[in-house]
Amino acid sequence: MLSETIELRGHIIDSLILPKVLDEIITHGGSFKIGEIRIGEARTDQSFARIEVTGPSAEELDDLILRLRQHGAEVQEKKSVQLAAAPADGVFPEHFYVTTNRQTFAQFDNGEVQVQPALMDSAIVIDRAARTATATKFYGVKKGQEVVVGHQGIRVLPLQRSTTRTDAFEFMASNVSIEKPKTVMIREMAREFQRAKAENGKILVVGGPAIVHTGAAEHFEKLIEWGYVNLLFAGNALAAHDIENALFGTSLGVFLEKGSLAEAGHENHMRAINAIRSAGGIRAAVKSGLLTSGIMYSCVKNGIDFVLAGSIRDDGPLPDVITDALEAQRAMRAKLEGVTIAVMMGTMLHSIAVGNLLPASVKTICVDINPGVVTKLADRGTFQAIGLVTDIEPFLRELTDYIAQTR
Model-level pTM? Predict the structure, then answer.
């Protein structure tokens, strides 16, 4: 039997980090002996535990320590990361360390460096001369670059609860259910929006065409005009149907105000796309006076940046849509700095894609009529995601009503 000594620091009791660590040890065939434990007395006090972890073999112990590192465990004896050269452009060496979206540090050359950005499903490239550790996707690695292999020398900060206040976010984060008290949750979201704006935070909205189809666009436009949206990520569909509504009063050929089908309404989104292509793009259409209302008009009018990422099913697409998936990913990543809240509404695939780009420090809210969407988002590594199961229109209506009352 082999053993390693680990240490846990922080709010390890009330954030349930300690019981999770002990459960991991037992579940994966190990055993433990707590050598020292100090529990903070006040809400803001941190706790500490030193634990000897024993495994049946060196390989199983190594795998167990890797799992414990994801909960913030530090091996008592600090060692430098192990490195190997990338064998070719776009290829990582074998046994490369796979990152999460939590804050991570790499130990090398007698010092510790934070890995930037906090990006999941990447490798860590070390530049000794510049003393940097960079989370890098496959397309970013070059032959010969030094890449971290194994987990030695890696420290991951666990997610911990707020020490300054308790809020509905902590209550809601535990599970996804249609029975959650929606009004409480929406009001807490509104307060988070107001705090973010007051503290110069950055609010990202990832939106799907359901915002338009459900008649929620007018509420979303209010958020934009009031300064509660700083960045919009979407696909061709949201923009195309928003512009269809602005030009023809329909979405998917249905009059939103009357709920009736327009004659030849199935053609309207195609005619809307053609009009924008003819104008030279969304911003050009606003400038020329062709586009005078809607979500995309409000974004341009209020200087809100947006990234539209294409998919294989797109009609058109609009000239503003980035059709290269890697280029769209790069464009999104380049605009994420400073984002403190991400709200994902009515789009499963875009939500998961953007969730993979966000650090765990970003409060992530997923609103969808389908409870499976937020479950899938969390299952794919976006640990911080919480969910509200509801239709988009009543959610945005109540959110804007509450903000309007407290502005």
Answer: 0.80
Structure tokens at 286: 């606003």
Containing 234, the helix (H) or strand (E) segment is strand 231-235
For residues 351 and 283, membership in a common domain is answered with yes
Fill in the DSSP letter of residue 294: S
Q: Are residues 44 and 55 in the same domain?
A: yes
- The two beta strands, 385-389 and 363-368, are parallel
Detail the DSSP E strand segments found in 56-150: 74-75, 82-85, 104-108, 111-116, 123-127, 132-136, 146-149
Contact 351, 380 (CB under 8 A): no
* CA atoms of 308 and 233, how far apart (whole Å): 6
What does the pLDDT look like over 57-92, one tens digit per residue?
888 888 898 889 888 888 877 789 999 999 999 999
Same domain, 282 and 396: yes
Q: What is the pLDDT of residues 289-338, one digit of tens each?
A: 999 999 999 999 999 999 999 999 899 999 999 999 999 999 999 999 99
Residues 33, 61 within the same domain: yes
What is the distance, to the nearest Å, from the Cα of residue 140 to the centroid of all Cα atoms in its chain? 20
- Last residue of some domain: 76, 96, 123? 76
Last residue of a domain, one of 126, 160, 194: 160
Domain count, the chain: 3
